[in-house]
Amino acid sequence: MYDFHGDQTASGDASSAPPLALTALELPRVLGEYTASRLLDVALKPMPGRAVGEGRPVLVLPGFAADDRLTGRLRGHLRSRGFRVHGWQLGSNIGLTDRLVDGLTDRFLAVADQYEQPVSIVGWSFGGLLARRLAHEYPDRVARIVCLGSPWRADGERTRATAMFERSRVKHGISERALDIITRLREPVPVPVTAVYSRTDGIVPWRGCRVEERPEPLAENVEVLSSHVGLVSNPLVLRIVVDRLTRDASVRTVA
After folding, report:
1. Which residues pair with 122 in a beta bridge?
2. In Å, how far from its chain's centre is CA 245?
3. Domain total in the chain
4. Using one digit for the tens of pLDDT, what is the confidence trace for 50-95?
5. Lower CB count within 10 Å: N or C terminus of the chain?
6. DSSP character at residue 84
7. Stretch 4-27: mean pLDDT, rounded?
């Protein structure tokens, strides 16, 4: 993420980042993962009337430099499984600018106001950090969060995208609240959280994506074999996301 303290150069030695060989394999791997998930969706099309998600609301947040188009495979899969799925509708995720910080809050509240139950949030990469922030700000309105390859820990800050964060900060600016937001979201999340990570992630260090596991509220880690970009299209990941979003047996009603 951002180099708030200036103790590391954006283009310097990223010893904690994934090996360059894994980074180079991201594109061919994600093409295979995307194709496999599309084929499986056709082959395993849900039976008519089988409402797996039972109309539960889900907000999907893209990763850094991504937009709703890149989460389309994930959102389409969830929609076909009976969830009411919403994209973030804020264009490209350029980081913690005031426009995106406030825009995401407005978007989340607009989605939450449509339903009489809390909203689940699925955040991919940096989108998972934003999901953690929303969970801290609105714990009674967030049902649970699922973070896909989200390096929220300080020791996971050096990624293959760190230089992109720094270039974005120069080009688009950064909110004065950014450091406070990052500090807050690193605290234990007050809602159930599932952290999905891959040791073969080519963009972010997998150790920085894991959470401290606990039974209540649930905090769990799920390891998968996936590329980083493919976390929003990998068939196994899609299956895990559906499973976690339907596990919440007790649906809390918003007062």
Report:
1. 60, 146
2. 14
3. 1
4. 578 999 999 999 999 999 999 999 999 999 999 999 999 999 999 9
5. C
6. E
7. 71
- Is the confidence at residue 251, as pLDDT, over 50? no
**Residue 221 in domain:** yes
Does residue 154 carry a pLDDT above 80? yes
Domain range for 205? 22-245
In-domain check, residue 7: no
Give the H or E element holding residue 85: strand 84-86
Map residue 121 onto helix, strand or coil. strand
Is 13 domain-assigned?
Answer: no
Per-residue CA distances from 140 to 120, 136, 253 (Å):
11, 9, 9
How many angstroms separate the CA atoms of 63 and 247, rounded?
A: 25
pLDDT (tens digit, 9 = 90+) per residue, 226-248? 999 999 999 999 999 999 999 86
d(CA 99, CA 43): 41
Looking up residue 214, the CATH number of its domain turns out to be 3.40.50.1820
pLDDT-derived band of residue 149, with 50, 70 and 90 as boundaries? very high
Q: Sheet harboring 57-61: ordered strands across?
A: 84-86, 57-61, 119-124, 142-148, 193-198, 218-224, 214-215
Buried b (16+ CB within 10 A) or exposed e, 204-236: bbbebbbbeeeeeebbebbebebbbbbbbbbbb
**Cβ-based burial of 97 (10 A; exposed 0-12, middle 13-18, buried ≥19):** middle
Strands (E) located in 125-217: 142-148, 193-198, 214-215
